[in-house]
Amino acid sequence: VSAPAAVREPAWSPPHAAIGVGVLGATGYGGAELVRLLTTHPGAALLALGSRHQAGKPMARVWPSLPDLDLVLDDDPDDPGAWIDRGVAVVFSALPHGAFLARAAAFLDAGLRVVDLSSDFRLSTAEGVTYGLTEWCGTELDRARLVANPGCYATAVLLAILPAVTAGWWSGSPIIANALSGVSGAGRSPGLTTHFVECGNSAAPYRVGDEHAHLREIARALARVGQEGPVVFNPHLVPMARGILATVSIPLAAPVPLAAAQAHFATRYTGSAFVRVLDPGDLPETRHVRGSNRCDMALRLAAGGTVLLVFAAIDNLLKGAAGQAIQNWNRISGWPETTGLPVAGWSCA
Ligand SMILES: NC(=O)c1ccc[n+]([C@@H]2O[C@H](COP(=O)([O-])OP(=O)(O)OC[C@H]3O[C@@H](n4cnc5c(N)ncnc54)[C@H](OP(=O)(O)O)[C@@H]3O)[C@@H](O)[C@H]2O)c1
After folding, report:
1. Partner of 32 at 20 to 30 A CA spacing, among 60, 164, 187, 202?
2. Is the full-model pTM beyond 0.90?
3. Which residue, among 245, 254, 260, 255, has the nearest Cα to 310 in the 3D structure?
4. Which position among 137, 152, 199, 295 bears the catalytic label?
5. Ligand 1 pocket: which of 29, 35, 92 to mutate (most atoms within 8 A of CB)
6. What are the pLDDT digits (tens) for 159-201?
7. Which residue from 33, 116, 117, 316 has its CB within 8 A of the most atoms of ligand 1, so it is best to mutate?
8. Which region, left, alpha or beta, applies to residue 291 given φ > 0 means left and ψ of -120 to 50 means alpha?
9. Is 152 one of the catalytic residues?
């Protein structure tokens, strides 16, 4: 994690030869969003999709929302050889944590570039692995052989706190991040806590305190910018299909006028098409970023000016998963960062 990079323009003009792309875990929520976005990406030729349970079926049969995609799902491959023979050069893995870990070396050794949506490599310090919080990546993304795509909660929380902590404003007292997530954050496999009757009309905290894995990811990202200190992270499941709203309280070492904080955040994200610091007085809502790769955020002061509040909203399946994965790949491959990615959200859903 380093200073945010301005959006890089490619040295050439599109159309540029499309690169062969494969998606592992294509039938899940993250995988299907990757596939949906990649089908219209001018730099991607979607050549291979992996699934354990739906192999042999056209993707359109599994996801009727993609009616023209007659590409047939393959068995989830252990070995990348068949995909490479078909022309795949980049693999997006949308498999659950641990499911790709043992195979990663084979894919990388075969020369494939990988963008992994799981948590398997987010804490890795191995050479060639880059933690892909895009707006805070520098040139290390260019050298990445494997991009560890950030978690959805971690994306919202880190985008909200990094401008303040890197400015030296954090007192070192605990940062408190309370976040709400839609149920698609838990993936497509059915479970009791994500059953409609259990969660459709209720809101519940889960894995609070020090329990959630994204806390370690947030701590690692803070350490990368030379900041260490306590963070309290409290996730909540709320009855909506998609979206994350993070409310972050940052204790201040010294007073910072709200207008100065607002200007600082806006400057930090100048050049980012996807991170928007809202006008003073406005607050973000998940419905405004649903279907978009944006992160909308807003700032307030609290407790007599001793605490900076930052509110951040993302779509967990886009900026929190598939969208950011493609944003990272755009940076790696030289396409403008916004290629194939929606800035506007859906009007309603
Ligand atoms: N959902 C989110 O908001 C979100 C956000 C950020 C990151 N992520 C990460 O992205 C990855 C995918 O998440 P998701 O929400 O798309 O999950 P999902 O809906 O459960 O989909 C995962 C897919 O992987 C396949 N799979 C292959 N091996 C598997 C195994 N051993 N166990 C279970 N499924 C297996 C499954 O398809 P087959 O059964 O057909 O093989 C399944 O469709 C996860 O690592 C997740 O943590 C998700």
Report:
1. 202
2. yes
3. 245
4. 152
5. 29
6. 999 999 999 999 999 999 999 999 999 999 989 999 999 999 9
7. 117
8. left
9. yes
